[in-house]
Fold:
Amino acid sequence: MLHARKITGIKEVHAIIGGFHLSGKDCEERIGKTVDMLKKFKPELIVPMHCTGWRGAFAIANAIPEAFVWNSVGNLYAL
Structure:
């Protein structure tokens, strides 16, 4: 997200959709830092995908419940 802001010059973030690579024991220590950073962007929509893992996804859901959407086959996102 920081890189996207840098190369586009656009500061506002509407949606963050993707895998955050937080799945597995080796990645769990990054969950809190990642969630803190995601909150700073104040997204209107945040959709963590498979490699975020269930612990990461639930941490994001608890921290940003108003923007969180559980990704599933068939979901449609109109931006």
In short: Residues 13-79 form one domain. The helical segments are 2-8, 31-41, 53-63. The mean pLDDT is 94.
